[in-house]
Structure formats: structure tokens, C-alpha cells
Design a protein that fits this description.
single chain; Clc chloride channel; about 0% strand
């Protein structure tokens, strides 16, 4: 006898109660860790700016981080890709050491002048901390997948102050073209509460103003298509350049700690003698300036080169904030050429380059709404979707699966890292 449909809401109550409790526990852990990380990052950035000579210690910092990962962190070196793999194919609990290793490695990278971000650190801390509950509570594989996704959402939301984008990011980042709705409750609750927990600890996020958004009309919509294509190609170039440089360095330098040491020498020398300080660290002042005034048209390329060099040589951190920088400054450069307000195109570029490079258009659209307000929604949506399509089957996360191919002829169900073998 089939159960009555009228009882379904009642039968859902234990499920909802379970994930409200689990997601809240994850959120408290991750939100607190993100707050500590952001305070440490602020200290590192302030110290580096006040003592410019610290850039000369970047090679030794790179060696130290490389040695620590070689000695203690080989199991977790894959970072975000490890989390994605574990969600798709659960095998073993992610070691708790991932959290302190990536936190310390990222803070050292910022203190001494590497060009890296913060999203990767927050997401990895979130996943590692959340996964410890799997062991404590003896969760099943199905529940472990969900709790890992909730940790990713909590980390993303709390580090950027965007709970809606964070909730969807945890669902969307796993596979191109598909969302995992089985985790939507856990990811949403974890993202919202983690964001609030970080705010309770005193975290304050930067908000970017777009004072004027033109009415929806043919030309602005066409501009978003053109700009979105450029943003997508830029995200693709960034992702593929980072992966290729990393592969090239690994093939030629077998001892892992030497890779960031050599990369640090190149970066430190270039920054010191070329005065390229604006391209290292998070670059928040330049991002803010991109919404306010015209900047040098090559700023996006400068940031891309330094970030590719930093991540490709083995420094720890994330890609997303550098992508925000690249997108905002590229939008700033395109605005006068396309006869659009500088703040609008800077804001759209901010989210659209990320949408293309991470293959997360929905999370990027929500981020635009949360950061810039609803008026920018239509324009951001078009640019993010076009960017996503134009970035092709490439991305910053090589363990992403192709759930729904962007165009015909591309195999589905494989990792992005496996795609070149199918193209031969």
C-alpha cells in the first residue's frame, strides 16, 4: 500500500531537522574559521604594505610552504579538486590538517607578496572542518556528500559576505551544467548561518557602488553580449595558463619546495624593480578604484600574469579574488570603448570573468545581486551566461565533471582534466 501524499510533509520533518542541525554545526565551525582567516589576512596585507622589503622574503616563504606540504600535506595538496573528487566519489575522510596548512600557506603567501586569493582557502577549510563531523557522527556516504557541499557553501559565503551565491556555489561547482538539489537545504542553511557567524565575529565586507544603471535597451544588452564573450575568453585564458604553467614547472622541477622558491624570485624581482605592487596580494584597493575612475587599460593583464605565476609555481591561496580584480579592471578598460558607465561594466566584469573561469553562472548572477543590487541583475545575467558559454570546457577546477556539455561533440561525465585525452 502506497503512503498517503498528505503525510509527505510530516515525513520530511526528521530530514529537515537533521540537516538544520548538521548545517548549523558546519556553519558555526566554518564561519568562525573564516573570520579568523580574514583577520589574519588583513594583518598580513597591512604588514606587507607597511614593509615593502618583505617581498624579498617571498622565495623563502614559498620554499617553506612547499616543504610543509611535501612533508605533511601530500594527501591534501589537491585542495579544492580533492573536495570535488570526494563529493563525487567518497573514499576517506579529508585530513583535518588541510585547514591549518592552507590557512598558514595562504597567509604567508599574502604576507610576502604572492598574487593569490582567499576563496580556495575558505572553501578548503570549510570542507575539511565539515568532513570531521562525518567521522564523529558516523555519517553515510550520501550524507557525507551533502555535508562536504555545505562546508564549501559556508566557506564561500562567509569569506565574501554573499550567502545566496555561496549556497548555489556549493551546488553548482561540482559539475558543469548540473545542480545537486539533494543538498540545497544544507547548503542554504550553512551559507546563511556561516555568513552571520562571521559578521558576529566582527568581519566587515567591502561593498561596491554602481550609482547608475541605464534602462534596459538594445545597445546595453548588446554590449553585455560582447563584453560577456570577452570576459569568458579571459577566464578561459586565465584557467588554462595557470594549469599549463603548473604542469610545465612540475615537469622541470622535481623537488616541490623549489617551485615556489623559483617563482618567488621571479615575482619579487619583477615587483621591486618594476614597481608592480598593485598586482600582488588581493588587490582590493584597485578593485574599488575600478568602480570609481578610469584605470590603466593593462591592469587586468598585469594581475593575470602575476596570479598565474604565483599559483602556477605553487603558492597557496585562491583564484577568485584575482578573477574579481581581472574582471573589474577589464570592464573598466572596456567601458569607454563600449560607451557604458565605468562602474556598471566594472561590476559586471567582476562577476562575469569568475562565472566563465569557475563555470558557475548562477552563483555569479546571485553574487551580482547581493553586491551591487537588483538593478544590475539583467545585465549581469546576460554577461555571466555568455561568459560561461565562451569559456568553453575549461576552468580553474580541473576535477569538475561535465554534467551537461556546453556544445555538441564533448563527452559528458568526465573531469575537465580528462578532456584533452578525448580530443586527441
Amino acid at each position: 500500500m502506497k503512503p498517503s501524499k498528505s503525510l509527505e510533509p510530516i515525513e520530511l520533518l526528521p530530514y529537515i531537522g537533521k540537516w538544520l542541525l548538521l548545517a548549523s554545526a558546519v556553519a558555526i565551525l566554518v564561519g568562525s574559521a573564516s573570520a579568523f582567516f580574514l583577520f589574519a589576512l588583513d594583518w598580513a596585507t597591512t604588514t606587507r604594505v607597511a614593509h615593502r622589503w618583505l617581498i624579498w622574503l617571498l622565495p623563502m616563504a614559498g620554499f617553506a610552504v612547499g616543504w610543509l606540504y611535501l612533508r605533511f600535506g601530500q594527501q591534501v595538496e589537491a585542495g579544492n579538486n580533492l573536495l570535488i573528487d570526494e563529493i563525487h566519489d567518497p573514499k576517506k575522510i579529508i585530513p583535518l590538517r588541510m585547514a591549518p596548512l592552507v590557512l598558514g600557506g595562504t597567509v604567508l603567501s599574502h604576507l610576502f607578496g604572492a598574487s593569490v586569493g582567499r576563496e580556495g582557502t575558505a572553501v578548503q577549510m570549510g570542507g575539511a572542518l565539515a568532513d570531521q563531523l562525518t567521522h564523529v557522527l558516523r555519517l553515510k556516504h550520501e550524507d557525507r556528500r551533502i555535508i562536504l557541499m555545505a562546508g564549501i557553501s559556508a566557506g564561500f559565503a562567509s569569506v565574501f559576505g554573499t550567502p545566496l551565491a555561496g549556497a548555489i556555489f556549493g551546488l553548482e561547482v561540482l559539475a558543469i551544467g548540473r545542480l545537486r538539489y539533494d543538498a540545497i537545504l544544507a547548503c542554504t542553511v550553512a551559507a546563511i548561518i556561516a555568513d552571520q557567524v562571521s559578521l558576529l565575529w566582527g568581519v566587515r565586507h567591502i561593498h561596491y557602488a554602481i550609482p547608475y544603471v541605464p534602462p534596459v535597451a538594445l545597445w546595453p544588452l548588446l554590449v553585455m553580449v560582447i563584453a560577456g564573450a570577452l570576459f569568458g575568453v579571459t577566464g578561459k585564458v586565465f584557467a588554462e595558463s595557470t594549469h599549463r604553467l603548473s604542469g610545465w614547472v612540475k615537469a622541470r622541477v622535481s623537488y616541490a619546495p623549489l617551485r615556489p622558491l623559483l617563482g618567488g624570485i621571479v615575482i619579487a624581482t619583477t615587483v621591486w624593480f618594476m614597481g608592480a605592487d598593485r598586482y600582488i596580494g588581493l588587490g582590493i584597493p584597485t578593485i574599488v578604484a575600478a568602480f570609481q575612475q578610469p584605470l590603466a587599460p593593462y591592469d587586468f593583464a598585469g594581475k593575470m600574469l602575476f596570479t598565474v605565476a604565483s599559483l602556477g609555481s605553487g603558492f597557496k591561496g585562491g583564484e577568485v579574488t584575482p578573477l574579481f580584480y581581472i574582471g573589474a579592471t577589464l570592464g573598466n578598460a572596456l567601458a569607454p570603448l563600449l560607451a557604458m558607465p565605468v562602474p556598471l561594466l566594472a561590476g559586471v566584469g567582476f562577476v562575469a570573468v569568475f562565472a566563465g573561469a569557475a563555470n558557475t553562472p548562477i552563483a555569479s548572477i546571485l553574487m551580482a545581486l547581493e553586491l551591487f543590487g537588483p538593478n544590475v541583475g539583467v545585465y549581469a545575467a546576460i554577461a555571466c551566461v555568455v561568459s560561461y558559454l565562451f569559456s568553453g570546457h575549461s576552468g580553474i577546477y580541473r576535477s569538475q565533471r561535465i554534467g551537461q556539455a556546453k556544445h555538441r561533440g564533448t563527452p559528458e561525465g568526465i573531469k575537465l582534466s580528462e578532456l584533452p585525452a578525448y580530443r586527441k
